[in-house]
Amino acid sequence: MSRLSVLTFTLLLFLFPRALAAQQTAITNEPTPPAIEKKAFDLLETVASRISTLRYPENRIAVSCAIADLVWSKDEKRARALFENVSREEAALVASVDLSDQRAYELISPINSQRQEVINRMALHDPDMALAFLRATRFPADAPMYSSNWERNLELSLSRAIAAKDPERALKIARESLSKGLTYELISLLAELERKNKPAAQSLYESVINRIKDEDLSRNQEAANIAINLLTSFQPPLANEDLFRDLLETVIKSALSMTPADPLTQQTAQNYFGSLFSSMQLVEKYAPARARAVRDWSQAITRTLDPHNQMYSELNQTVQNGSVDDVLALAPKFPSEMRNQVYQQAAWKASSDGDIARARQIAADYISDPVQRRQFLEQINNQQTWTAINDNKLAEARALLAKSSSVELRVQVLCRIAATLMAKDNKKEALDCLNEARALVSALPRNSTKVWQQMQLASAYATVELDQSFALMQAIVIQLNELVMAAVVMDGFENRYLRRGEWMMNGPNNMANIVTNMRHTIAQLARFDLDRAETLSDQLERPEIRLMTQLEIVQSTLTGASMGPMMGQPRNFIGGLVR
């Protein structure tokens, strides 16, 4: 992937979630009327009565866990009983995995994902119960994909929830974890303890620093990275200044002990180089006597980089600290095949500085590759489009949108504009935007992208013309029934869609994702018309998909949130960990 493509992708990752979040604000979060709440709980009881019909343990666990979460406030005893059953089922599921099977990892990965989902739900109500579940459902240490750090990070993320009520217990968990090694989650717990109990935070901070000092940072890259992270994220006055100086001195001493040319420590040294160079202000403030030595060492490290990396290092530093002209001045120093990247960086810097005209001019004058130039100019246009929307300049946004070649982007922007117009009670223009988007989607080829866009439109229509939402979803349900039936026939040929004869809601394939998005969208529509959403769910032919959709309908109706992009995923996250 070219550097321009990486920048483009990064920009889209930044912009699209903002667009989706804005679109979803159209979904009402008003309190559920009593009559609707009763209907929702009646439907929940129907779902609960069918748990025993599920053959796939992961499906039973997910449904039971979600129901326990939903009924906790009304019937804690029942909820605890459900969670206890979930714990037994999950432990049995873990024990059933044959670790000698070469394909055991295919089972372990989704089980661990579900464990975290269950932990997140339990922790919302009783963090100690969640901690007990975590410890009771671990795989043996010799299991494929087992990571003691991952397990300890989960414990520490739970201890952050525990810290709200019992900081001393959270500190004890942290110390137990620290005795087994350093993990990044310790820093997050440190920040939480600082908010809840400052003495406990300072005690943990000192313990972490002492553990860092016991490590050979030149040989332990993870510990070195944690030390750098702690330096940049927990500073005076939050941190004790003497301890902070001690940590900084430890990191500097470790860095200076490494010979730049030593292949055994070169990678760690180069990582230090990037971190310490960006932290020079801290060095100059808290260890000024070391500043000269750190600069000299950094220069020595720079000479160990290969020529290309040296150039990129100089380019990155200039982009961060220099002007657009400074970046452009680097181009003659670069080989001809690398100059396009310098010009792209200069153009992006001009754009980020708000000088769009100059960014366009740089692209037109210097970016010689026509494909990269076109991509860049289109992304500049897209950036301007979102900026115009955020500034409430809708006419300008629509004019800019006409220049975009991406149907997906145009649909997203039109939905966003429609939501903004509806907030101003301008239904006519909002409907025009959505109808324009619908025409664009209709012209797409019949594939998963089209289905996804149709579901986005169904959500967007909900506050403008609800009948259109249900019409779109009616067609999607019919289509997905056919696709699911075909997938069942193809099960095991290339992809796995079923396990124990049931649809895998967390299946590792695009078809499972489409079904999940369909459930999520129907659940959103239930906030506007529960009866129609339930009727639509009744048309789903696979009973387990129908049951899960109805559970999502209940959750959306009662809480204003669906179960998320993964089956059984809770509304909130404790640790935000990614395996």
Mean model confidence by pLDDT: 86
What structural class should be given to the helix and strand makeup?
mainly alpha
The amount of beta strand, in percent, is: under 5%
- End-to-end gap: 24 Å
Query: Low-confidence parts lasting 5 or more residues at pLDDT below 50?
Result: 1-28, 564-579
| Helix content class | over 70%
Reported for the largest beta sheet, the result is:
2 strands, antiparallel
Total count of strands: 2
Global Rg:
27 Å
Globally, the shape reads: globular
> H/E series, N to C?
HHHHHHHHHHHHHHHHHHHHHHHHHEEHHH
Order of strands side by side in the largest beta sheet?
1-2
Number of helices: 28
What does this structure look like?
The chain is built from 28 helices and two strands. The longest helix has 25 residues, at 466-490. The relative contact order is 0.10. With 579 residues, the chain is mainly alpha-helical. A hairpin with a 2-residue loop joins strand 1 and strand 2 (502-503). It has a two-stranded antiparallel sheet. It has helices at residues 3-24, 34-49, 57-71, 76-96, 104-125, 127-136, 148-163, 167-178, 185-196, 198-214, 221-233, 241-257, 266-278, 280-286, 288-304, 307-321, 324-330, 336-352, 356-366, 370-390, 394-401, 407-423, 427-442, 448-461, 466-490, 510-526, 530-538, 543-559; strands at 498-499, 502-503.
